[in-house]
Design goal:
With about 350 residues, this protein is of the alpha+beta class. It has helices at about 1-30, 100-130, 135-160, and strands at about 40-45, 45-65, 65-70, 75-80, 85-90, 95, 160-165, 170, 180, 185-190, 195-205, 215-220, 230-235, 245-255, 265-280, 295, 295-300, 305, 310, 315-320, 320-325, 335-340, 350. It has 4 domains: about 40-50 and about 275-350, conserved putative lor/sdh protein from methanococcus maripaludis s2 fold; about 55-65 and about 190-275, Efflux pump adaptor protein, beta barrel domain (Elongation Factor Tu (Ef-tu), domain 3, Beta Barrel); about 70-95 and about 165-190, RNA polymerase II/Efflux pump adaptor protein, barrel-sandwich hybrid domain (OB fold (Dihydrolipoamide Acetyltransferase, E2P)); about 100-160, Helix Hairpins (Orthogonal Bundle).
Length: about 350
């Protein structure tokens, strides 16, 4: 019995010592001051910069000389002298419509004209000799003029049976073939002079006083994402569209731009003016439905910083990774550029530029 009692006392002493040690440890931890570690972020200083002012717009590229070829008259195509994508010169014959009737009429009228010339020449000699009355000579002269007019009319109808290139250019997809019957307005092919291109666009009417001939315009097209083309403003409409309150503008593109008519283009017009703006790295702005916000850091005496309540800012355009702030922030203030999701008001921060979003 004594051995059991001794064992029991020994166990009580052992567990009591362990419980006492744990109590002392927890008491010392509770009495010590606990401080959260600083939140590691990246930061930058808001800067005041002079930015050139621009007007942005979108437009459509078109050729100075560009049309859809079509026929003025009806007829069946008997001859074709071009293919899709051909480069042609002004006056080059492209196709011929069936002109059998017109050719027969032309031969008949040539014969009538030859006869009218002979009769007129004979009557001219006879009227000088007073062998015929003046009225007969006048009649033969009128017959000659009529025969000449009829031949000119037939030749005009014949010319309508032939379609030629109206200017130097590149043909598009051929939409007809030999044997097709065409009517006035039937599109045969598109022809575009790719050496001279323009871009048409619109701007709000209030931008009118800021525009002038000769202004430089930067043009970008999705087909060439890494290239910028230059255009020169050369024409503005003389009136504002009453339905949209926009003014139509046209600019001439630099030669050899490789762009094609019909392409969509983004344009930027330099206004030769500068505007002082406060800028921060684009990553400093947090976008939300309730407003765009920026975390500001308040410096502390020990050289670290405290996160302030996020402020709502009015943002502008982005250039080279920096965004313009129109209100809510002043130059010289330090803002958080990475790590915003870990912040709260009054949080102690440690700046490390290696931190990424």
């Amino acid at each position: 019995m004594r051995s059991y009692a001794a064992t029991f006392v020994a166990l009580v002493l052992i567990f009591g010592a362990i419980a006492g040690f744990n109590y002392l440890q927890s008491s010392s931890s509770a009495n010590s001051n606990y401080a959260r570690p600083p939140v590691v972020i990246a930061a930058a200083t808001a800067m005041s910069e002079s930015w050139d002012q621009y007007l942005d717009s979108v437009g459509t590229i078109k050729a100075v000389h560009g049309v859809e070829l079509s026929s003025e008259t009806s007829g069946q195509i008997t001859k074709l002298f071009f293919d899709s994508g051909d480069v042609v010169v002004k006056g080059q014959l492209l196709l011929v419509l069936n002109d059998t009737v017109e050719q027969a009429s032309k031969q008949n009228q040539i014969a009538s004209l030859d006869l009218a010339k002979l009769l007129h020449e004979r009557d001219a000699k006879l009227v000088e000799q007073k062998s015929i009355p003046q009225s007969q000579y006048d009649r033969s002269r009128a017959d000659l003029q009529s025969a000449q007019a009829q031949l000119v009319e037939t030749e005009a109808r014949l010319s309508q049976k032939r379609i030629t290139a109206p200017f130097d250019g590149t043909l598009g997809i051929r939409r007809v073939d030999v044997g097709d019957y065409v009517t006035p307005g039937t599109v045969i092919a598109s022809i575009q002079d790719l050496t001279e291109l323009e871009v048409d666009f619109t701007l709000p009417s209030q931008a009118g006083p800021l525009l002038a001939k000769g202004q430089s315009i930067m043009v970008e097209a999705a087909a060439y994402p890494q290239q910028t083309f230059e255009a020169i403003l050369f024409a503005m409409d003389s009136r504002v569209d009453t339905s949209t309150r926009n003014i139509a503008v046209r600019a001439k593109l630099e030669s050899g731009s490789k762009l094609l008519p019909g392409m969509f283009a983004n344009l930027r017009i330099a206004l030769q003016r500068e505007n002082e703006v406060v800028t921060v790295p684009e990553t400093a702005v947090t976008y939300s439905l309730h407003g765009n916000t920026v975390f500001i850091i308040k410096p502390t005496d020990d050289g670290s910083g405290l996160a302030q309540e996020p402020v709502i800012v009015e943002v502008g355009e982005v250039r080279d990774g920096r965004i313009a702030i129109y209100s809510g922030l002043s130059a010289g203030q330090q803002v958080v550029t990475a790590g915003q999701n870990k912040l709260f008001r009054g949080a102690l921060v440690a700046i490390d530029e290696r931190v990424k979003l």
